[in-house]
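FIELD: query
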Amino acid sequence: MGQANGSILLRKKGIEQVKALAEDKAYKLKREIGTLELLLLFIGSLIGAGIFVLPGVAAAKYAGPAVSLSYLLGGIVCICVGLCYVEFASMAPFAGSAYTYAYIALGEILAWIVGWDLLFEFTVVCSTVSVGWSGYVVSFLKSLGINLPAALTRDIAHGGIINLPAILGLLLVGYIAYSGIKNVSRTNTLLTVIKLSAILFFVACGLFHLKPANWHPFAPFGLAGIMTGAALTFFAYTGFDGITAVLEEVKNPQRSIPIALIGGLAIVILLYVGVAAVLTGVVNYTRLDVPDPAAFALMEMGIRWGGALISVAILFGLIAVMLGYGLSATRILFAMSRDGLLPPVFARVHERTRVPHIATLVIFGVAILGGGFLSINELAELANIGGLTAFTVPPTLGYAR
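FIELD: result
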């Protein structure tokens, strides 16, 4: 009896079985995402406000100007993990990301654990980003002379009642996700282009104000500082695995996956390294332990309106991040339900938009509860629980093969 139960828990699902479910009319999603749109969805999900904040903190406290090397090392690690995702995603271009790959390679019980881990991580990260977005909204409105009541912009633990801007942001993102994958793709493309334009503007301006003396000493904290900085900045790359959850909606997944994952990671690494190098070249690293180092650097360049530009870019950019994480969570919930590991109601697909609409409502509903009533520190601690597991699974799958 024990052996029978064990065999059930460890049973695997073949690629052909997953393919048959994906082609079933009841579960069929629309393949509307092209290669460029998948690449931009990847970049939009990965780059958040951290690109304008984290390099300054990491440089001031841990790595100095060598923070560029810290980002490079973290990126190389991510590319190694990304290659594992490319292999499995090309073999099984279906909804579910690492959950689906675990079901194929390791068996049902481990897939169930991985699926819940990813659901938890992506949903909580979506809530976390919404609280950060709320902070930027409140700050931006304050600069315009509009002061929102503290009771409506803070969680209960910090003297508020509800974080209304965070809830409104998630409602907006949830509406976009519910309206169809084509609208998601178009919206993300616009938001990501705005975000990338702001990053390139910062780098271009900085190139004309570089002071090579600021790069000396290059590694004031030594190799230990560079590695500590790499550990800190590594989390700037986390979340890219979630993009494989939407591959069932990509037009030509075998062609698009390698370009989007590896090409996208290469672009993101270049952006992080470039921003870090320019930031430490414009302002001495000892002065970068400030909440807004990019805006501070633009002020040093004489661009006093630069802070407002950065804030607007972050406002748009964080919507793209929420959209990417929320979308990934809905597709994982959909895949687990379709496989019979969760109630079948979550696998229902809207007849017109071909979106798993019940799963979308559930994920964004839970995210709204987190963003509306918990602090960003509490949410970030919860999100970190699933992060390392998500990065451990793909190499494990490769070994299992």
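FIELD: remark
The mean pLDDT is 85.
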